[in-house]
Design a protein that fits this description.
This protein is α+β, with helices and mostly antiparallel strands. Helices cover 51% and strands 12% of the residues. The protein has a 3-stranded antiparallel β-sheet with strand order 1-3-2, covered by helices on one side. The mean pLDDT is 88.
Length: 138
């Protein structure tokens, strides 16, 4: 639990962190819930208790309520983005991820896109279109 609290604290402080995929995925739900509570305002007792529990550095409580909560106020949910990055070098080759808060000041990360032209469905559709064009041509 302390590890998750430290990861949530680091995410609030830096707004983009690298972590092993499993930890980042687990922490994501807690970070999203913390922002949901922060949107209720700093006068809400439950929101303050959640912030005091999850943020190990108490100077970040102000950032959570005064910077992040207003940024996400118009959005109904999904405040974080989780992207896979190359596996960690070394002994374990752990699957790594970058988790970031949306709307952060950093340049955007490039999402890897599959070559969708080569998927089975698209190949079948391409063949169907070619057959229809041949049938329609006199």
């Amino acid at each position: 639990l302390d590890l998750l609290r430290n990861l949530v604290t680091a995410l609030v402080r830096h707004e983009r962190i690298e972590a092993p995929w499993a930890r980042a995925d687990e922490m994501r739900g807690y970070a999203e819930r913390l922002i949901e509570y922060a949107k209720l305002g700093d006068t809400n007792e439950r929101a303050m208790r959640m912030a005091n529990f999850w943020l190990t550095e108490k100077d970040l409580v102000h950032k959570l309520f005064k910077v992040l909560a207003p940024r996400f106020q118009p959005h109904p949910g999904s405040y974080t983005r989780l992207l896979q990055i190359p596996n960690r070098d070394g002994l374990d080759r752990a699957k790594m991820a970058v988790i970031e808060l949306k709307g952060n000041p950093f340049p955007p990360l490039i999402c890897p896109r599959r070559d969708t032209e080569k998927t089975l469905l698209n190949q079948l559709l391409k063949g169907y279109r070619e057959d229809m064009q041949r049938a329609a041509a006199p």
